[in-house]
Amino acid sequence: DIQMTQSPASLSASLEEIVTITCQASQDIGNYLSWYQQKLGKSPQLLIHSATSLADGVPSRFSGSRSGTQYSLKINRLQVEDTGIYYCLQHYSAPWTFGGGTKLELK
Amino acid sequence: QVQLKESGPGLVQPSQTLSLTCTVSGFSLTSNSVSWVRQPPGKGLEWMGAIWSGGSTDYNSALKSRLSISRDTSKSQVFLKMNSLQTEDTAIYFCTRSYVMDAWGQGASVTVSS
């Protein structure tokens, strides 16, 4: 199975700060990587698919990038509504696997 | 409008079988895959398995021996059955659409307890 190592596990940042979350894949997964945001008590929501493509309706301060088998989610100018838990997912090959999650809080 | 909705029993006895239904609308099961994802209390997301648009299935290696996913395209429903439930299977169970999981149900809370 492909392992997705997500870091950091938790993060505290200030309003308007730039935040970066990373996922390291254990092998090549191409661009078959998505990012999700989950708020407390809610279902996850798709932010980024195909490693770099912004999902419909997602603010442009979110962006995704790839360097080899390392994938990053960047949030420019952090807003209050961006708090929550973020997960990456590889869907290159079954079984699909999620990263462990990053809890993002406001400082 | 794309929608998914999970339904099933909230409480299951240990060693029994869990049966959940995901009823979808706004898209066709013959053109889209549906995955099941679960989340134990306070923990992360776990992909359980999927039924692809052509009807074939794939499962999480750790659950494969206990899990079955099927569908009824005429009713726009996807079914999850998992046997030999234990307390560790207590979780919220979500169904989601497509390879990028662009739509999710609200989740079904399942507690395994006697």
Give a verbal description of the structure.
- The complex is a heterodimer of chains A (107) and B (114).
- By secondary structure, chain A is mainly beta.
- In chain A, 0% of the residues lie in helices and 50% in strands.
- Chain A has strands at 4-7, 10-13, 19-25, 33-38, 45-49, 53-54, 62-67, 70-75, 84-90, 97-98, 102-106.
- In chain A, the strands form two sheets. In chain A, strands 2, 4, 5, 6, 9, 10 and 11 form a seven-stranded mixed sheet that branches.
- In chain A, a hairpin with a 3-residue loop joins strand 5 (45-49) and strand 6.
- Chain A starts with a strand and ends with a strand.
- The model of chain A has no long low-confidence stretch (mean pLDDT 97).
- With 114 residues, chain B is mainly β.
- In chain B, strands 2, 4, 5, 6, 9, 10 and 11 form a seven-stranded mixed sheet that branches.
- Helix content of chain B is 0%, strand content 49%.
- Chain B contains no helices and eleven strands.
- At the A-B interface, strand 4, strand 5, strand 9 and strand 10 of A face strand 5 of B.
Helix percent band of chain A: under 10%
Q: Provide the structure class of chain B.
A: mainly beta
Instruction: Report the uncertain regions of chain B.
Output: none
Largest interface: A-B, 24 and 21 residues
Low-confidence region ranges of chain A: none
Largest sheet of chain B, if any? 7 strands, mixed
Order of helices and strands of chain B: EEEEEEEEEEE
CA(first)-CA(last) distance of chain B: 39 Å
Q: How many DSSP E strands of chain A? A: 11
- Calculate Rg of chain B over CA atoms: 13 Å
End-to-end distance of chain A, in Å?
Answer: 36 Å
